[in-house]
Amino acid sequence: MELFSGSIDFLDDNNTDSNGTEDFLDLLGPCFTQENNDFNRIFLPTVYSFIFLLGIIGNGLVVLVMGYQKKSRTMTDKYRLHLSVADLLFVFTLPFWSVDAAIGWYFKEFLCKAVHVIYTVNLYSSVLILAFISLDRYLAIVHATNSQGSRKLLAERIVYAGVWLPAILLTVPDLVFASVSDIEGTFVCDRIYPVENRENWTVGFRFLHITVGLVLPGLIILTCYCVIISKLSHSKGHQKRKALKTTVILILAFFACWLPYYICLTIDTFGLLGLLKFDCYMDNMLHKWISITEALAFFHCCLNPILYAFLGAKFKTSAQNALTSVSRGSSLKILSKKRAGLSSVSTESESSSFHSS
Protein backbone atom coordinates (compact mmCIF):
# COMPACT_ATOMS: atom_id res chain seq x y z
CA MET A 1 0.00 0.00 0.00
CA GLU A 2 1.13 3.55 -0.62
CA LEU A 3 2.65 5.42 2.29
CA PHE A 4 0.13 7.05 4.61
CA SER A 5 -3.07 6.88 2.64
CA GLY A 6 -5.11 7.35 5.79
CA SER A 7 -6.83 10.42 7.16
CA ILE A 8 -4.41 13.11 8.34
CA ASP A 9 -6.65 15.86 9.68
CA PHE A 10 -3.99 17.25 12.01
CA LEU A 11 -1.95 18.80 9.19
CA ASP A 12 -3.12 22.38 9.56
CA ASP A 13 -1.39 25.68 10.17
CA ASN A 14 -1.75 25.44 13.96
CA ASN A 15 0.17 22.17 14.19
CA THR A 16 3.17 22.65 11.93
CA ASP A 17 5.37 23.94 14.75
CA SER A 18 5.35 20.56 16.49
CA ASN A 19 8.53 18.51 16.11
CA GLY A 20 6.55 15.31 15.59
CA THR A 21 4.48 16.90 12.85
CA GLU A 22 7.58 18.37 11.18
CA ASP A 23 9.15 14.90 11.08
CA PHE A 24 5.96 13.49 9.65
CA LEU A 25 5.75 16.22 7.02
CA ASP A 26 9.35 15.48 6.10
CA LEU A 27 8.40 11.83 5.67
CA LEU A 28 5.47 12.71 3.42
CA GLY A 29 7.53 15.17 1.37
CA PRO A 30 7.42 18.95 0.92
CA CYS A 31 4.66 18.78 -1.71
CA PHE A 32 2.08 16.88 0.35
CA THR A 33 -1.33 18.57 0.44
CA GLN A 34 -4.55 17.90 2.34
CA GLU A 35 -6.30 17.68 -1.05
CA ASN A 36 -4.56 14.37 -1.81
CA ASN A 37 -5.54 13.05 1.60
CA ASP A 38 -9.19 14.07 1.12
CA PHE A 39 -9.24 12.37 -2.28
CA ASN A 40 -7.87 9.11 -0.82
CA ARG A 41 -10.38 9.25 2.02
CA ILE A 42 -13.33 9.14 -0.39
CA PHE A 43 -11.97 7.23 -3.39
CA LEU A 44 -10.10 4.36 -1.74
CA PRO A 45 -12.82 3.08 0.67
CA THR A 46 -15.37 3.16 -2.17
CA VAL A 47 -13.21 1.14 -4.57
CA TYR A 48 -11.91 -1.23 -1.88
CA SER A 49 -15.46 -2.02 -0.71
CA PHE A 50 -16.56 -2.81 -4.27
CA ILE A 51 -13.51 -5.05 -4.90
CA PHE A 52 -14.06 -6.74 -1.53
CA LEU A 53 -17.64 -7.76 -2.41
CA LEU A 54 -16.77 -8.94 -5.93
CA GLY A 55 -13.63 -10.75 -4.74
CA ILE A 56 -15.43 -12.56 -1.91
CA ILE A 57 -18.25 -13.76 -4.18
CA GLY A 58 -16.08 -14.76 -7.18
CA ASN A 59 -13.16 -16.38 -5.37
CA GLY A 60 -15.42 -17.90 -2.72
CA LEU A 61 -17.40 -19.65 -5.46
CA VAL A 62 -14.19 -20.97 -7.06
CA VAL A 63 -12.97 -22.39 -3.71
CA LEU A 64 -16.42 -23.95 -3.13
CA VAL A 65 -16.48 -25.56 -6.58
CA MET A 66 -12.90 -26.83 -6.33
CA GLY A 67 -13.75 -28.35 -2.96
CA TYR A 68 -16.63 -30.27 -4.51
CA GLN A 69 -14.54 -31.66 -7.38
CA LYS A 70 -11.55 -32.97 -5.40
CA LYS A 71 -11.29 -36.22 -7.34
CA SER A 72 -11.63 -34.68 -10.80
CA ARG A 73 -9.26 -31.72 -10.31
CA THR A 74 -6.81 -31.16 -13.15
CA MET A 75 -3.39 -29.56 -12.68
CA THR A 76 -4.79 -26.27 -13.96
CA ASP A 77 -7.58 -26.51 -11.38
CA LYS A 78 -4.95 -26.81 -8.64
CA TYR A 79 -3.40 -23.53 -9.76
CA ARG A 80 -6.83 -21.93 -9.85
CA LEU A 81 -7.43 -23.05 -6.28
CA HIS A 82 -4.07 -21.59 -5.17
CA LEU A 83 -4.93 -18.36 -6.99
CA SER A 84 -8.40 -18.04 -5.51
CA VAL A 85 -7.13 -18.72 -1.98
CA ALA A 86 -4.46 -16.04 -2.47
CA ASP A 87 -7.01 -13.55 -3.85
CA LEU A 88 -9.52 -14.41 -1.13
CA LEU A 89 -6.97 -13.75 1.62
CA PHE A 90 -5.95 -10.55 -0.15
CA VAL A 91 -9.48 -9.12 -0.29
CA PHE A 92 -9.88 -9.84 3.44
CA THR A 93 -7.31 -7.09 4.10
CA LEU A 94 -9.23 -4.46 2.12
CA PRO A 95 -11.72 -3.53 4.90
CA PHE A 96 -8.75 -2.63 7.12
CA TRP A 97 -7.25 -0.43 4.38
CA SER A 98 -10.67 1.16 3.81
CA VAL A 99 -10.90 2.19 7.47
CA ASP A 100 -7.28 3.37 7.37
CA ALA A 101 -7.93 5.54 4.30
CA ALA A 102 -11.13 6.99 5.75
CA ILE A 103 -10.28 7.76 9.38
CA GLY A 104 -6.77 6.49 10.11
CA TRP A 105 -5.55 3.28 11.74
CA TYR A 106 -7.68 2.38 14.76
CA PHE A 107 -6.46 -1.17 15.30
CA LYS A 108 -3.64 -2.70 17.35
CA GLU A 109 0.00 -2.84 16.19
CA PHE A 110 -0.25 -6.62 15.91
CA LEU A 111 -3.04 -6.18 13.33
CA CYS A 112 -0.95 -3.57 11.53
CA LYS A 113 1.86 -6.09 11.01
CA ALA A 114 -0.55 -8.97 10.31
CA VAL A 115 -2.51 -7.06 7.66
CA HIS A 116 0.72 -5.92 5.97
CA VAL A 117 2.04 -9.50 5.97
CA ILE A 118 -1.20 -10.95 4.53
CA TYR A 119 -1.34 -8.16 1.94
CA THR A 120 2.28 -8.79 0.83
CA VAL A 121 2.02 -12.60 0.77
CA ASN A 122 -1.06 -12.58 -1.37
CA LEU A 123 -0.04 -9.70 -3.61
CA TYR A 124 3.12 -11.53 -4.67
CA SER A 125 1.71 -15.06 -4.57
CA SER A 126 -1.20 -14.18 -6.86
CA VAL A 127 1.02 -12.68 -9.56
CA LEU A 128 3.55 -15.53 -9.27
CA ILE A 129 0.73 -18.10 -9.57
CA LEU A 130 -0.31 -16.36 -12.80
CA ALA A 131 3.24 -16.94 -14.07
CA PHE A 132 3.01 -20.63 -13.10
CA ILE A 133 -0.34 -20.94 -14.89
CA SER A 134 1.25 -19.51 -18.04
CA LEU A 135 4.11 -22.05 -17.74
CA ASP A 136 1.57 -24.84 -17.33
CA ARG A 137 -0.38 -23.67 -20.40
CA TYR A 138 2.88 -23.45 -22.36
CA LEU A 139 3.82 -27.04 -21.50
CA ALA A 140 0.29 -28.33 -22.15
CA ILE A 141 -0.08 -26.70 -25.57
CA VAL A 142 3.44 -26.36 -27.00
CA HIS A 143 4.87 -29.59 -25.54
CA ALA A 144 1.64 -31.56 -25.27
CA THR A 145 3.09 -35.02 -25.95
CA ASN A 146 5.75 -35.23 -23.23
CA SER A 147 4.90 -32.56 -20.64
CA GLN A 148 2.70 -34.51 -18.19
CA GLY A 149 5.52 -35.24 -15.74
CA SER A 150 6.86 -31.68 -15.82
CA ARG A 151 3.39 -30.19 -15.35
CA LYS A 152 2.69 -32.48 -12.38
CA LEU A 153 6.01 -31.52 -10.77
CA LEU A 154 5.25 -27.81 -11.24
CA ALA A 155 1.70 -28.06 -9.90
CA GLU A 156 2.37 -30.28 -6.89
CA ARG A 157 5.92 -29.47 -5.75
CA ILE A 158 7.63 -26.48 -7.35
CA VAL A 159 4.61 -24.17 -6.90
CA TYR A 160 5.29 -24.04 -3.15
CA ALA A 161 8.98 -23.17 -3.57
CA GLY A 162 8.37 -20.84 -6.51
CA VAL A 163 5.29 -19.01 -5.20
CA TRP A 164 4.57 -19.27 -1.49
CA LEU A 165 8.16 -19.36 -0.21
CA PRO A 166 9.28 -16.14 -2.01
CA ALA A 167 6.00 -14.45 -1.05
CA ILE A 168 6.54 -15.32 2.63
CA LEU A 169 10.20 -14.22 2.54
CA LEU A 170 9.14 -10.87 1.07
CA THR A 171 7.11 -10.18 4.23
CA VAL A 172 10.29 -9.70 6.30
CA PRO A 173 10.28 -5.89 5.71
CA ASP A 174 6.67 -5.80 6.97
CA LEU A 175 7.58 -7.71 10.12
CA VAL A 176 10.54 -5.41 10.76
CA PHE A 177 9.28 -1.98 9.68
CA ALA A 178 5.46 -2.02 9.77
CA SER A 179 4.23 -0.24 12.88
CA VAL A 180 1.62 2.14 14.22
CA SER A 181 2.69 5.73 14.84
CA ASP A 182 0.73 8.23 16.90
CA ILE A 183 1.14 11.60 15.18
CA GLU A 184 -0.75 14.37 16.96
CA GLY A 185 -3.56 11.97 17.89
CA THR A 186 -3.83 10.36 14.44
CA PHE A 187 -2.68 6.76 14.16
CA VAL A 188 -0.80 5.69 11.04
CA CYS A 189 0.02 2.08 10.06
CA ASP A 190 2.82 1.74 7.54
CA ARG A 191 6.43 0.77 7.02
CA ILE A 192 8.53 3.31 8.90
CA TYR A 193 12.13 3.10 7.68
CA PRO A 194 15.14 4.46 9.64
CA VAL A 195 15.32 8.26 9.31
CA GLU A 196 19.03 8.50 8.41
CA ASN A 197 18.71 6.48 5.17
CA ARG A 198 14.96 6.36 4.61
CA GLU A 199 15.23 7.21 0.91
CA ASN A 200 17.62 4.30 0.26
CA TRP A 201 15.30 1.87 2.02
CA THR A 202 12.30 3.20 0.06
CA VAL A 203 14.03 3.02 -3.33
CA GLY A 204 15.48 -0.45 -2.62
CA PHE A 205 12.13 -1.96 -1.68
CA ARG A 206 10.42 -0.15 -4.57
CA PHE A 207 12.75 -1.84 -7.07
CA LEU A 208 12.19 -5.20 -5.35
CA HIS A 209 8.44 -4.66 -5.55
CA ILE A 210 8.57 -3.72 -9.24
CA THR A 211 10.91 -6.61 -10.13
CA VAL A 212 9.03 -9.40 -8.32
CA GLY A 213 5.57 -7.89 -8.75
CA LEU A 214 5.74 -7.15 -12.48
CA VAL A 215 8.99 -7.57 -14.40
CA LEU A 216 9.82 -11.25 -13.71
CA PRO A 217 6.28 -12.68 -13.77
CA GLY A 218 5.35 -10.31 -16.62
CA LEU A 219 8.22 -11.58 -18.78
CA ILE A 220 7.26 -15.21 -18.06
CA ILE A 221 3.58 -14.58 -18.83
CA LEU A 222 4.32 -12.58 -21.99
CA THR A 223 6.89 -15.07 -23.33
CA CYS A 224 4.78 -18.17 -22.66
CA TYR A 225 1.59 -16.72 -24.09
CA CYS A 226 3.32 -15.29 -27.16
CA VAL A 227 4.67 -18.77 -27.96
CA ILE A 228 1.21 -20.23 -27.27
CA ILE A 229 -0.41 -17.72 -29.64
CA SER A 230 2.17 -18.54 -32.31
CA LYS A 231 1.44 -22.26 -31.90
CA LEU A 232 -2.35 -21.86 -31.93
CA SER A 233 -2.35 -19.46 -34.87
CA HIS A 234 -1.15 -22.32 -37.09
CA SER A 235 -3.91 -24.61 -35.85
CA LYS A 236 -7.43 -24.90 -37.19
CA GLY A 237 -10.75 -25.60 -35.57
CA HIS A 238 -13.24 -23.86 -33.29
CA GLN A 239 -11.62 -25.02 -30.04
CA LYS A 240 -8.21 -23.74 -31.14
CA ARG A 241 -9.64 -20.33 -32.03
CA LYS A 242 -11.45 -20.18 -28.71
CA ALA A 243 -8.23 -21.04 -26.85
CA LEU A 244 -6.38 -18.33 -28.82
CA LYS A 245 -9.04 -15.75 -27.95
CA THR A 246 -8.93 -16.69 -24.26
CA THR A 247 -5.13 -16.44 -24.25
CA VAL A 248 -5.18 -12.92 -25.70
CA ILE A 249 -7.78 -11.86 -23.09
CA LEU A 250 -5.58 -13.24 -20.29
CA ILE A 251 -2.54 -11.22 -21.43
CA LEU A 252 -4.50 -8.01 -21.92
CA ALA A 253 -6.26 -8.32 -18.56
CA PHE A 254 -3.02 -8.82 -16.64
CA PHE A 255 -1.15 -5.91 -18.19
CA ALA A 256 -4.20 -3.61 -18.32
CA CYS A 257 -4.65 -4.03 -14.56
CA TRP A 258 -1.05 -3.85 -13.36
CA LEU A 259 0.99 -1.92 -15.92
CA PRO A 260 -0.45 1.60 -15.20
CA TYR A 261 0.29 1.23 -11.47
CA TYR A 262 3.85 0.04 -11.99
CA ILE A 263 4.52 2.78 -14.55
CA CYS A 264 3.44 5.43 -12.03
CA LEU A 265 5.47 3.72 -9.28
CA THR A 266 8.57 3.58 -11.50
CA ILE A 267 8.26 7.27 -12.43
CA ASP A 268 7.95 8.19 -8.75
CA THR A 269 11.00 6.03 -7.91
CA PHE A 270 13.04 7.81 -10.60
CA GLY A 271 11.95 11.06 -8.96
CA LEU A 272 13.25 9.84 -5.59
CA LEU A 273 16.58 9.02 -7.26
CA GLY A 274 16.75 12.52 -8.78
CA LEU A 275 16.65 11.18 -12.34
CA LEU A 276 13.38 13.07 -12.94
CA LYS A 277 12.42 16.49 -11.56
CA PHE A 278 8.84 17.35 -10.60
CA ASP A 279 7.25 20.52 -9.36
CA CYS A 280 4.69 20.21 -6.54
CA TYR A 281 1.73 20.08 -8.93
CA MET A 282 3.24 17.17 -10.87
CA ASP A 283 4.30 15.42 -7.65
CA ASN A 284 0.78 15.62 -6.19
CA MET A 285 -0.80 14.46 -9.45
CA LEU A 286 1.63 11.52 -9.63
CA HIS A 287 0.78 10.40 -6.09
CA LYS A 288 -2.93 10.72 -6.83
CA TRP A 289 -2.48 8.54 -9.92
CA ILE A 290 -0.50 6.00 -7.90
CA SER A 291 -3.49 5.70 -5.53
CA ILE A 292 -5.92 5.38 -8.45
CA THR A 293 -3.92 2.86 -10.48
CA GLU A 294 -3.08 0.75 -7.42
CA ALA A 295 -6.75 0.53 -6.47
CA LEU A 296 -7.72 -0.34 -10.05
CA ALA A 297 -4.96 -2.98 -10.19
CA PHE A 298 -6.69 -4.77 -7.33
CA PHE A 299 -9.62 -5.44 -9.67
CA HIS A 300 -7.47 -8.21 -11.14
CA CYS A 301 -8.32 -10.40 -8.14
CA CYS A 302 -11.99 -10.04 -9.13
CA LEU A 303 -11.25 -10.78 -12.80
CA ASN A 304 -9.24 -13.93 -12.06
CA PRO A 305 -12.31 -16.12 -11.26
CA ILE A 306 -13.91 -14.96 -14.52
CA LEU A 307 -10.82 -15.28 -16.70
CA TYR A 308 -9.41 -18.52 -15.29
CA ALA A 309 -12.57 -20.32 -14.27
CA PHE A 310 -15.85 -18.97 -15.61
CA LEU A 311 -14.61 -18.94 -19.23
CA GLY A 312 -14.29 -22.71 -19.07
CA ALA A 313 -17.35 -24.84 -19.84
CA LYS A 314 -16.17 -27.48 -17.35
CA PHE A 315 -16.15 -24.97 -14.50
CA LYS A 316 -19.68 -23.80 -15.32
CA THR A 317 -20.92 -27.39 -15.12
CA SER A 318 -19.02 -27.98 -11.86
CA ALA A 319 -20.40 -24.73 -10.40
CA GLN A 320 -23.96 -25.75 -11.24
CA ASN A 321 -23.42 -29.19 -9.69
CA ALA A 322 -21.85 -27.71 -6.54
CA LEU A 323 -24.60 -25.14 -6.07
CA THR A 324 -27.24 -27.79 -6.71
CA SER A 325 -25.61 -30.05 -4.09
CA VAL A 326 -25.51 -27.17 -1.59
CA SER A 327 -29.16 -26.27 -2.21
CA ARG A 328 -30.19 -29.93 -1.97
CA GLY A 329 -28.26 -30.31 1.26
CA SER A 330 -29.97 -27.24 2.70
CA SER A 331 -33.39 -28.49 1.55
CA LEU A 332 -32.79 -31.91 3.11
CA LYS A 333 -31.78 -30.31 6.42
CA ILE A 334 -34.90 -28.13 6.45
CA LEU A 335 -37.07 -31.12 5.47
CA SER A 336 -35.56 -33.34 8.15
CA LYS A 337 -36.16 -30.62 10.77
CA LYS A 338 -39.78 -30.29 9.66
CA ARG A 339 -40.25 -34.05 9.81
CA ALA A 340 -38.68 -34.17 13.24
CA GLY A 341 -41.02 -31.40 14.37
CA LEU A 342 -44.07 -33.15 12.92
CA SER A 343 -43.11 -36.46 14.49
CA SER A 344 -42.66 -34.83 17.90
CA VAL A 345 -46.04 -33.11 17.59
CA SER A 346 -47.60 -36.40 16.55
CA THR A 347 -46.00 -38.17 19.51
CA GLU A 348 -47.22 -35.49 21.90
CA SER A 349 -50.78 -35.72 20.58
CA GLU A 350 -50.71 -39.48 20.80
CA SER A 351 -49.39 -39.26 24.35
CA SER A 352 -52.09 -36.79 25.43
CA SER A 353 -54.75 -38.91 23.76
CA PHE A 354 -53.50 -41.99 25.63
CA HIS A 355 -53.55 -40.20 29.01
CA SER A 356 -57.01 -38.72 28.41
CA SER A 357 -58.44 -42.08 27.65
UniProtKB/TrEMBL annotation:
<keyword id="KW-1003">Cell membrane</keyword>
<dbReference type="GO" id="GO:0016493">
    <property type="term" value="F:C-C chemokine receptor activity"/>
</dbReference>
<keyword id="KW-0807">Transducer</keyword>
<dbReference type="GO" id="GO:0007204">
    <property type="term" value="P:positive regulation of cytosolic calcium ion concentration"/>
</dbReference>
<comment type="subunit">
    <text>Monomer. Can form dimers.</text>
</comment>
<dbReference type="GO" id="GO:0006955">
    <property type="term" value="P:immune response"/>
</dbReference>
<feature type="transmembrane region" description="Helical">
    <location>
        <begin position="207"/>
        <end position="228"/>
    </location>
</feature>
<dbReference type="GO" id="GO:0005769">
    <property type="term" value="C:early endosome"/>
</dbReference>
<dbReference type="GO" id="GO:0022008">
    <property type="term" value="P:neurogenesis"/>
</dbReference>
<feature type="transmembrane region" description="Helical">
    <location>
        <begin position="249"/>
        <end position="276"/>
    </location>
</feature>
<feature type="domain" description="G-protein coupled receptors family 1 profile">
    <location>
        <begin position="58"/>
        <end position="308"/>
    </location>
</feature>
<dbReference type="Pfam" id="PF12109">
    <property type="entry name" value="CXCR4_N"/>
</dbReference>
<dbReference type="GO" id="GO:0019957">
    <property type="term" value="F:C-C chemokine binding"/>
</dbReference>
<dbReference type="GO" id="GO:0007420">
    <property type="term" value="P:brain development"/>
</dbReference>
<dbReference type="GO" id="GO:0019722">
    <property type="term" value="P:calcium-mediated signaling"/>
</dbReference>
<feature type="transmembrane region" description="Helical">
    <location>
        <begin position="47"/>
        <end position="68"/>
    </location>
</feature>
<comment type="similarity">
    <text>Belongs to the G-protein coupled receptor 1 family.</text>
</comment>
<keyword id="KW-1133">Transmembrane helix</keyword>
<protein>
    <recommendedName>
        <fullName>G-protein coupled receptors family 1 profile domain-containing protein</fullName>
    </recommendedName>
</protein>
<feature type="region of interest" description="Disordered">
    <location>
        <begin position="336"/>
        <end position="357"/>
    </location>
</feature>
<dbReference type="GO" id="GO:0060326">
    <property type="term" value="P:cell chemotaxis"/>
</dbReference>
<feature type="transmembrane region" description="Helical">
    <location>
        <begin position="288"/>
        <end position="311"/>
    </location>
</feature>
<keyword id="KW-0325">Glycoprotein</keyword>
<dbReference type="InterPro" id="IPR000276">
    <property type="entry name" value="GPCR_Rhodpsn"/>
</dbReference>
<keyword id="KW-1015">Disulfide bond</keyword>
<dbReference type="InterPro" id="IPR001277">
    <property type="entry name" value="CXCR4/ACKR2"/>
</dbReference>
<dbReference type="InterPro" id="IPR000355">
    <property type="entry name" value="Chemokine_rcpt"/>
</dbReference>
<dbReference type="Pfam" id="PF00001">
    <property type="entry name" value="7tm_1"/>
</dbReference>
<feature type="compositionally biased region" description="Low complexity">
    <location>
        <begin position="343"/>
        <end position="357"/>
    </location>
</feature>
<dbReference type="GO" id="GO:0005770">
    <property type="term" value="C:late endosome"/>
</dbReference>
<keyword id="KW-0675">Receptor</keyword>
<dbReference type="GO" id="GO:0009897">
    <property type="term" value="C:external side of plasma membrane"/>
</dbReference>
<feature type="transmembrane region" description="Helical">
    <location>
        <begin position="154"/>
        <end position="172"/>
    </location>
</feature>
<dbReference type="InterPro" id="IPR017452">
    <property type="entry name" value="GPCR_Rhodpsn_7TM"/>
</dbReference>
<dbReference type="GO" id="GO:0005764">
    <property type="term" value="C:lysosome"/>
</dbReference>
<keyword id="KW-0967">Endosome</keyword>
<keyword id="KW-0472">Membrane</keyword>
<keyword id="KW-0765">Sulfation</keyword>
<dbReference type="InterPro" id="IPR022726">
    <property type="entry name" value="Chemokine_CXCR4_N_dom"/>
</dbReference>
<keyword id="KW-0297">G-protein coupled receptor</keyword>
<feature type="transmembrane region" description="Helical">
    <location>
        <begin position="88"/>
        <end position="107"/>
    </location>
</feature>
<feature type="transmembrane region" description="Helical">
    <location>
        <begin position="113"/>
        <end position="133"/>
    </location>
</feature>
